[in-house]
Amino acid sequence: MAEDTTSKDYWRWTESNWHDPDMDWREGDIISAGVDVGSVSSQTVIMVDGKLYAYSNMRTGSDSPKSAENAMDWALEGTGMTLDDIHYAVGTGYGRVNVPFAKRAITEIACHARGANFMYGPTIKTVLDMGGQDCKAIRVDQKGKVVSFLMNDKCAAGTGRGMEVFADLLGVHITKVGEMSLQVDEEPPMVSSTCVVFAKSEASALLREGWPKEKVLAAYCLAMAHRVVGLLERLGIEEDFAITGGIAKNIGIVSRVEKELGIKALKPSLDTQIAGAIGGALFATALLKKERKKK
Amino acid sequence: MIANYGYKDGSGEYFISVDTEKCTGCGDCVEACPYGVFEVVEDPMDPLSDDQVAIVTEAERKKIKYTCGPCKPVSDRPPLPCVAACLEHAISHSW
After folding, report:
1. Structural domain boundaries in chain B
2. Is the CB of residue A131 less than 8 Å from the CB of residue A40?
3. What is the largest CA-CA distance in chain A?
4. What value of ipTM does the predicted structure carry?
5. Which of helix, strand or coil describes residue A111?
6. Which uninterrupted H or E stretch holds A56?
7. Domains with residue ranges and CATH for chain A
8. Of B1, B13, B62, the CB nearest to A234
9. What is the CATH number of domain B2-70+78-93?
10. Are A179 and A165 within 8 A, CB to CB?
11. Are the Cβ atoms of B9 and A235 closer than 8 angstroms?
């Protein structure tokens, strides 16, 4: 009997692509691209003269170069543009050295800072990027330059991967986790284990004790929020503040981080997962200008 | 820029901070560190600048608690070689 596997992919978040149908890229002087190959998701952003033209956001496969190509192909889909039309591409993220068509690899911290500046404007001072496999706290100046940063990629606590583990354990779709975690009358004590593997065992024990899923999710979201607030406090927080990355779409985490910090995060105007690729595309534009000036 | 390299885990926070405003990229820390924690490269956080700065190598970032251990005895801790070598006072440790 064929088994329906799709309904069991609780971790499977929504992939997307987009391009601006009103913009004619052929009139552009500089066509740049940023390709962010992360541990969990890959994004491509294409910019025409520093303006957002197209993007894609999809899952990273086991093969980084292939993931970069797939993300690029999907962003180009329906635009009439080909890879040869792109003047300068920058690779970023965990798999940045594996982007075959990138002229340069730039760290994701620099790209996220620059991308957040584009997405939220020059008032943005503190960025928390909650990625698939790491968590970064970045302070930026009004031009999107990094002022200070701190990154935790040694453990999965405070990352999308940690959330996927819980979605899977509880059989709750990843996009519903945040909302569901807020359906509790009062906040339970947070899961005490920092490590995702131990937190999962702790959650299993809580389920056996008869805790409803909502309460277990609340306890985990609370723990994750507390953990990243610790990172932010080490760096120092200055408003405006924003969260990028996949977890920024999880209202259960965002609202708890806001509550613990006592400040609100800016509402995103774009997909929070593409911040790094946006930064990459902006650097590509700047680097190409620099190159042309030299000639 | 203050670059914090390291991590936080269940046992504590382990970060080496480099102030890139003060760092001249001279490389004295690279020579002073007995375990090769530092290297001098073009500032990876500022791709548009050509300035050379000291960074903690990628390989060491996840294990500095252990790598730096021998320089940090529990009592009578002498000055850390990297911190002492840096005349600009650009390097500090969180633990």
Report:
1. 2-70+78-93
2. yes
3. 70
4. 0.89
5. helix
6. strand A51-59
7. 10-115+274-294 (3.30.420.40), 125-265 (3.30.420.40)
8. B13
9. 3.30.70.20
10. no
11. no
Using CB atoms, which residue from B1, B15, B47 is nearest to A106?
B47
Q: What is the pLDDT along chain A (295 residues), one digit of tens a residue?
A: 454 445 678 888 889 999 999 999 999 999 999 999 998 999 999 999 999 999 999 999 889 899 999 999 999 999 999 999 999 999 999 899 999 999 999 999 999 999 999 999 999 999 999 998 889 999 999 999 999 999 887 777 788 988 999 999 999 999 999 999 999 999 999 998 878 888 999 999 999 999 999 999 999 999 999 989 988 999 999 999 999 999 999 999 999 999 999 999 999 999 999 999 999 999 999 999 999 998 7
Q: Do B8 and A230 touch (CB under 8 A)?
A: yes
Q: Using a CB–CB cutoff of 8 Å, tell me whether B13 touches chain A.
A: yes
In whole angstroms, give the CA distance from residue A82 to residue A31. 11
Verify cis geometry, omega within 30 degrees of 0, for the bond prior to A36.
no
pTM, entire model: 0.91
The DSSP 8-state label assigned to residue A84 in this structure reads G
Hey, what amino acid is at A175? T
Is A142 in contact with A122 (CB distance < 8 Å)? yes
Is residue A102 within 8 A of residue B47, CB to CB? The reply is no
Q: What is the distance between the alpha carbons of residues A118 and A259, in angstroms, rounded to a whole number?
A: 26
